[in-house]
UniProtKB/TrEMBL annotation:
EC code(s) of this entry: 5.1.1.1
Pfam family name, one: Ala_racemase_C
Keywords noted in UniProt: Isomerase, Pyridoxal phosphate
Biological role: Catalyzes the interconversion of L-alanine and D-alanine. May also act on other amino acids.
Pathway in which the depicted protein is active: Amino-acid biosynthesis; D-alanine biosynthesis; D-alanine from L-alanine: step 1/1
Protein name (record): Alanine racemase
PROSITE patterns per the UniProt record, alphabetical: ALANINE_RACEMASE
Family matches, as PANTHER family: ALANINE RACEMASE, ALANINE RACEMASE, CATABOLIC-RELATED
Protein's organism: Candidatus Sungiibacteriota bacterium
Catalytic site: 39, 255
Coiled-coil intervals, chain numbering: none
Amino acid sequence: MRKTLPVRTWIELDKKALLANFNFFASRARGMEIMAVIKSNAYGHGLVTVARCISGKSKKIWLGVDSITEALALRREKIKNPILVLGYTLPNRMKEARQNNVSITISNFESLKALETLKAKPAFHIKIETGMNRLGFKKADWPKLISRLQKSNLTPDGIYSHLAEATDRKYSKKQIECFREAILSFKNSGIRPKFAHILKTEGILNFPSVGSMVRIGIGLYGYIPSRLKNLKPVMTWKTMVAEVKNVRQGELIGYGLTEKFRRDSRVAVLPIGYWHGYDRGLSSIGEVLIHGQRVKVMGRVSMDMTVVDITNIQNVKVGDEAVLLGRQGNDYISGDEIADKIGTIVYEVITRINPLIYKVVV
């Protein structure tokens, strides 16, 4: 693959894996509408690239993004699927949502007031706070909210909430009951949103059907908090060997001279670093695959370069592929493995990959 690409580092996206993951969750959604959550640059996988894969399957699949900026990026690329902005939308950008057929989230009275002042209003979903204490109208706000919607003759297209910890069944059930109560309150007041959604990746598996739509997030990309084996990781992140050199026992390496070679060694310099999203926390503990074998990161990960020990691998040369995340040969470095090493979660590992890195669908 590298010989055909004029880049030093790139991401390969497995379209078959992406669609297999989608189908896995869709088959458990019991006929409900599906939203593919592609916010935050599709969890680091490439906003437009992933959107095209999903749109190619069906133009009816909803796409969930973080901001109006992401939504407009999709519209510029002629993505026609329905889009919901899950994050906060600035009042002065609501008009753009209307002009581009993008639905927005209304989660507070300030945003509702801004919406009311518009002559031409965008479609919107109301977000309900059910126990996570982020965006959303709390239960005490519902009577006022319903009254405002009635007086303004506004009908939301959707109502939704978010599970704080889908693996915590007891707390999730409490949130779901609160959500159902909100739906009933709206219904009894004559407000009947077409869409109701609270279930995300893990929730789809752990709970019976709730609402009329489900949102597939991290699971779409092959990851899940419970590390379900049925899913297929979509991303492989690769780079290349830029230089090979010999070092002597006792020599030091990298910024801060943090590591000393205990033997005569051979190292490879990789043209990637923390600017690309390869975490500095992997200094001296990270591993990379070259020729299907694991090699250790030596010294500190620099802004644009990382050095690995290739002493035990024969015939490594400039231009050879190195896998930072994904499979090479019979070995595999997962996002979860990297997350465990640096004390974070896989979400952070993959979303922090620099969006400028070239992506190719395989």
